[in-house]
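can u do me a favor
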């Protein structure tokens, strides 16, 4: 049996040139990144809001809006709390190579700026550097009740005891722990953890939630609360 593929991080690639987009998606997938393709600004904002990526690779020349408008939307203080992850990293990849363009992109909130044409190894090195800087600036550990989650080491400890989780169980736990008392709808969890566009009749979420519940607390089942007909929350309010 082939082992589950561990994703290093999630990346949205916003690029309207089909050839460049295909090249980036193919290579990033080969380098063990989870990737969503976004040929328009609207696609990029949707993926950034609902898929919870770690990094956005952003072209500035898009068919429906400027990449700078996307940056402003992501970094808008009044909206970032409710719509976008404030820790989302952004790497601008643009044919605009003047000093003024680079400064403008960085001023609008980009973490790095790479000019086309580019070599993929350099882009990959910049992606890794940006992710390291972003992760260094935020706590790697999340604590909810007796649960301690280390996103960098991908470890979980409950009541002082280590718990072994599959890749999807870990991703589900991280998402629930981001707002532990909020009820996450089934559609939301299937879309953001599994990438499903339509839930259909799948029992994937229920099966993973049940296993996660048993692993976290086999005796009392205090965690991963099923809110019937709606979705799941990690703990009761």
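np, heres the sequence
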């Amino acid at each position: 049996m082939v082992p589950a593929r561990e994703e290093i991080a999630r990346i949205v690639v916003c690029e309207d040139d089909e050839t460049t987009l295909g090249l980036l998606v193919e290579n990033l997938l080969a380098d063990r990144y989870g990737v969503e393709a976004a040929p328009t600004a609207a696609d990029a904002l949707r993926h950034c809001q609902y898929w919870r990526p770690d990094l956005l690779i952003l072209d500035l020349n898009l068919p429906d809006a400027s990449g700078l408008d996307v940056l402003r939307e992501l970094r808008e203080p009044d909206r970032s709390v409710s719509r976008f992850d404030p820790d989302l990293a952004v790497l601008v990849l643009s044919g605009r190579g003047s000093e003024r363009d680079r400064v403008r992109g960085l001023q609008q909130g980009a973490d790095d700026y790479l000019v086309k044409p580019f070599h993929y190894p350099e882009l990959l090195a910049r992606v890794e550097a940006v992710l390291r800087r972003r992760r260094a600036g935020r706590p790697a550990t999340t604590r909810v009740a007796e649960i301690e989650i280390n996103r960098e080491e991908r470890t979980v400890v409950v009541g002082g005891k280590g718990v072994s989780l599959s890749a999807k169980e870990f991703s589900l736990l991280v998402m629930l722990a981001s707002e532990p008392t909020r009820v996450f709808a089934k559609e939301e969890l299937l879309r953001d953890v599994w990438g499903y566009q339509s839930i259909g009749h799948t029992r994937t979420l229920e099966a993973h939630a049940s296993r996660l519940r048993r692993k976290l607390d086999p005796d009392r089942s205090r965690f991963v609360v099923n809110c019937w007909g709606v979705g799941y929350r990690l703990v009761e309010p």
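The domain at 10-136 is CATH 3.40.50.2300 (Rossmann fold). hope that helps!!
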